[in-house]
């Protein structure tokens, strides 16, 4: 960790090879093997990571059935190829956050929006992990502030406990991403009720159930 890596975000080390060699050797492999090769092989600058052509290539590899849309299982397997393990519910939440046409899948434009959000989280993680490969709670708090979330202590520690998978106070990149996805989803939902922009809402029981069900990861 600590270095800038290509999208898809990967916990794997970056190996430098020529992109043409990657293309020449791609025949005969399945799409997810190709995706893993791509995420491991391309050593890209920040400009290249955000290059639409690179993102389109990645998207097309994940869209193995060529529908123009990525499903949650396809996206989950693609992340796993980059050594990022997310539950299917987290991946579904990623899609819901940017599912502008509400069809339950992710088209390329929606994928680009998700990419920008994930890159912001990855850069924050890389700036704080200090070569350890994980964040401690103090780092997580600082990172959340950098990403744009300001929580009081009860909310912060409750959220941290929920996303600390091993209960050791160490948050890997996928843990930190999952936490940020939850918080962004909760913020979006809260904002839909806070129409007066007062920073507080009143919910009846049915609305509360609706909110908790939509934010559940």
From TrEMBL:
Subcellular localization(s) per the UniProt record: Cytoplasm
Main location: cytoplasm
Database matches in InterPro entries: EF-hand-dom_pair, EF_Hand_1_Ca_BS, EF_hand_dom, Peflin/Sorcin_CaBP
Domain EF-hand: 50-85, 86-121
The protein's name in its UniProt record: Sorcin-like protein
SUPFAM superfamilies (UniProt xref): EF-hand
Highest taxon above the source species: Eukaryota
Keywords recorded for this protein, A-Z: Calcium, Cytoplasm, Metal-binding, Repeat
A GO CC term attached to the entry: cytoplasm
PANTHER family xref list: GH27120P, PEFLIN
Organism: Cinnamomum micranthum f. kanehirae
GO terms for MF: calcium ion binding; calcium-dependent protein binding
């Amino acid at each position: 960790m600590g270095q800038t890596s290509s999208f898809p975000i990967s916990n794997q080390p970056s190996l430098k090879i020529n992109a043409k060699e990657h293309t020449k050797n791609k025949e005969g492999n399945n799409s997810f093997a190709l995706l893993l090769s791509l995420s491991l092989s391309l050593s890209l600058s920040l400009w290249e990571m955000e290059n639409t052509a690179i993102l389109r290539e990645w998207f097309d590899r994940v869209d193995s059935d060529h529908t123009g849309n990525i499903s949650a299982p396809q996206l989950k397997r693609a992340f796993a190829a980059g050594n990022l393990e997310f539950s299917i519910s987290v991946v579904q939440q990623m899609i819901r956050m940017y599912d502008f046409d509400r069809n339950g899948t992710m088209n390329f434009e929606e994928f680009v929006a998700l990419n920008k959000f994930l890159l912001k989280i990855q850069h924050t993680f890389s700036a704080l992990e200090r070569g350890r490969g994980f964040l401690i709670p103090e780092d997580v708090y600082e990172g959340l502030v950098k990403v744009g979330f300001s929580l009081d202590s009860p909310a912060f520690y409750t959220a941290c406990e929920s996303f600390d998978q091993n209960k050791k106070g160490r948050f890997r990149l996928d843990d930190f991403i999952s936490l940020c996805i939850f918080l962004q989803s909760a913020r979006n939902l809260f904002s839909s009720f806070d129409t007066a922009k007062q920073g507080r809402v009143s919910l009846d029981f049915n609305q509360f159930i609706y909110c908790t069900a939509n934010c559940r990861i």
